[in-house]
């Protein structure tokens, strides 16, 4: 199979660039991964030089520093767009520092959207702003570890927000209000039950609005997977082992509804979320560069499906996310502290008649006010009402029944 990266680069180099506002040379930069033909991953200095070159060359691109890691590395957000838009797609790359293929796909995507002069790219950027966090865990990337410099798994920090990386990402979601959050990862296969080129999964948390959940499944089943399969890659549902003969599910090993994972937090915060995982190991004996190219190429194929979804389902996504963000103000319906879309909540995991709000002590508020603000939770001093856009999130942060709560606050039932 021809490398998708090679095809993309060839198309970029051949495309006319006359309509792109340029401030520097028009030759598109290449990543260290591309320069080496997949023999090595792009280094952090190479990434910084690459992004600076793209930023300098294209008026579509702006780069901001949104935080700093414990080891003083920058957390960066790239914005690609030609005008203000009502729709935003956020790519989160390498939350786990030892999973490089998604980061490589994100870097080349930044470059291709910055330089692309085809009608499809122009049409996408007329309606959609694309945000990219190229390296969400720079310290883990430098150490080639899953966690950050404190050993914390960032993808388990989207409730507590105890890490600089998690806090920076929460602020982006609060301030930019993305309609789609696309989270790129890698996984280790378990043949013959769990060895597709790509797995993906939508928010399973039961507090995700029905229409947002439906659009996330549509993104997976009708766009990302078909795009990957069209390029010859196998796909499946993350966390589910399947019988190699019948294809029937036999065991769930991951992919639950816990709210501290970005995929699920995206749904709780009214965003169409999707986790995508490329397989690390090759299915057959091949040289490492060939396998590395497959890992990245499969991610690029899936991204084609994401951008197709943004164009084809944009209005439906806008409607779903807008309605979900308004629904909390009606202050009705149960809140779930457990269960998933494939695992019905037990009665004890359902707050059928939620309180009007929660009262924090002065000390609790002093300790947690920053985290509440980063989440975008509205407070009245030490009082946290449920009637707000992030209604379902409030009990997940403050109720004694929530497994990943920040604290136990006093429920206010005097409505």
Structural write-up:
- The chain has helices at 4-14, 32-35, 44-57, 101-115, 119-127, 138-143, 164-176, 210-230, 262-268, 288-312, 314-327, 362-375, 393-398, and strands at residues 61-68, 74-80, 87-93, 128-133, 180-187, 198-201, 235-237, 240-242, 249-252, 272-279, 335-336, 350-351, 357-359, 383-385, 410-412.
- Strands 1-2-4-3-5-10-6-7 form an 8-stranded mixed beta sheet, with helices on both faces. The protein has a 3-stranded antiparallel beta sheet with strand order 14-13-15. A two-stranded antiparallel sheet has the order 8-9.
- The chain is globular.
- It starts with a helix and ends with a strand.
- Helix content is 38%, strand content 17%.
- The chain has 13 helices and 15 strands.
- The protein has 415 residues and is of the alpha/beta class.
User: How do the SSEs run, as a string of H and E?
Assistant: HHHEEEHHEHHEEHEEEHEHHEEEHEHE
The structure class reads: alpha/beta
Q: What share of residues is helical? A: 25-40%
Radius of gyration: 21 Å
How many individual helices?
Answer: 13
Q: Average pLDDT value?
A: 93
């Amino acid at each position: 199979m021809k490398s998708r990266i090679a095809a993309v680069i060839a198309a970029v180099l051949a495309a006319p660039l006359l309509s792109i506002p340029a401030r520097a040379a028009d030759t598109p930069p290449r990543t260290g991964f591309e320069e080496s033909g997949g023999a090595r991953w792009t280094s952090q200095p190479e990434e910084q030089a690459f992004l600076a070159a793209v930023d300098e060359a294209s008026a579509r691109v702006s780069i901001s520093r949104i935080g700093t890691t414990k080891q003083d590395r920058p957390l960066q957000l790239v914005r690609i767009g030609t005008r203000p838009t009502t729709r935003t797609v956020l790519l989160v790359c390498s939350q786990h520092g030892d999973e490089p293929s998604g980061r490589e796909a994100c870097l080349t995507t930044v470059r291709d959207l910055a330089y692309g002069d085809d009608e499809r790219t122009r049409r996408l950027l007329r309606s959609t702003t694309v945000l990219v966090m190229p390296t969400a865990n720079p310290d883990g990337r430098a150490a080639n570890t899953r966690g950050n410099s404190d050993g914390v798994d960032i993808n388990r920090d989207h409730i507590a927000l105890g890490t600089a990386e998690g806090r920076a990402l929460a602020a982006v979601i609060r301030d930019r209000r993305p309609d789609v959050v696309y989270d790129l990862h890698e996984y280790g296969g378990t043949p013959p039950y769990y060895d597709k080129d790509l797995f993906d999964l939508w928010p399973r948390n039961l507090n995700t609005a029905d229409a947002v959940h439906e659009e996330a499944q549509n993104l997976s089943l009708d766009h990302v997977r078909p795009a990957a399969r069209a390029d010859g890659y196998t796909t499946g549902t993350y966390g589910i082992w399947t019988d190699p003969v019948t294809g029937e599910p036999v065991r769930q090993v991951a992919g639950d509804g816990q709210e501290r994972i970005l995929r699920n937090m995206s749904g709780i915060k009214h965003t169409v979320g999707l986790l995508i995982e490329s397989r690390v190991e090759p299915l057959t004996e091949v040289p490492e560069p060939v396998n590395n190219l497959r890992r990245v190429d499969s991610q690029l194929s899936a991204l084609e499906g994401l951008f197709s979804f943004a164009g084809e389902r944009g209005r439906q996504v806008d409607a779903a996310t807008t309605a979900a963000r308004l629904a909390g103000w009606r202050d009705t319906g149960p809140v779930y502290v457990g269960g998933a879309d494939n695992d019905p909540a037990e009665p004890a995991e359902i707050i059928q008649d939620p309180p009007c709000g929660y009262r924090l002590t002065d000390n609790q508020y002093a300790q947690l006010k920053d985290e509440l603000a980063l989440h975008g939770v509205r407070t009245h001093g030490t009082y946290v009402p449920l009637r707000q856009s992030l209604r379902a999130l409030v009990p997940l942060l403050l109720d004694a029944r929530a497994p990943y709560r920040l604290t136990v606050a006093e429920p206010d039932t005097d409505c």
